[in-house]
Amino acid sequence: MTVRKRIASLVGLIGVLAAGNSGVWAIEVNLSPDEAHKALEIGRIPMEKANSPEDVKKVLQQASLATRVGADPEKDPCGASAVLRTKRYRLEAFGRQEAAESKKRKTDVRMPEEFVQKVMDMPNMEMEVQLCGDDEYFAEGALIELQQGSKRIKPIDIGKAERGRKNETNGPVFRSR
User: Is 105 buried (19+), middle (13-18) or exposed (0-12) by CB count in 10 A?
Assistant: First the structure.
């Protein structure tokens, strides 16, 4: 499957998820302070319970699955997939970081309120997309556009693509984010 077809299938998948008729699929744009602190707690609790490196790895994998759309990179390394980094995602990640730092320092560590407010005030969502191709630098200059019905959403800030890593499976030789 070509890079263009993979991108098209990823964009289609994200569009289908975004256009779902259930409120469950909607991305919450505005969080209240209570919801923000609840998200911190949701991220913190499983990490506090994790006692071994394997437990920590499981917690981090579960967190990644919650905001991933598309193929599972563990099972299909070149399947169309993306990670949506919403405000809630970031706050939960901060909660996990709080728990890890608290264990390390053996005292409660909490994110400063202005840091939480900064996340709540963020106007945009970050999206990480994985692509595969046959050239090491195939992803440089790649642009992704989301489409929902007749509405098209273009990125406002584009991060530099990683240099392609060797793909160990059949199919395209390299994968990049």
Answer: exposed
User: How many domains are contained in the chain?
Assistant: 1
- Degrees to nearest 5, angle at CA 145 with 143 and 150: 155
Q: What is the pLDDT of residues 27-76, one digit of tens each?
A: 667 889 999 999 999 999 999 998 888 998 888 888 888 888 888 877 88
pTM: 0.69
Other CB atoms within 10 A of residue 29 CB: 11
Q: Which domain does 65 fall in, by range? A: 3-176
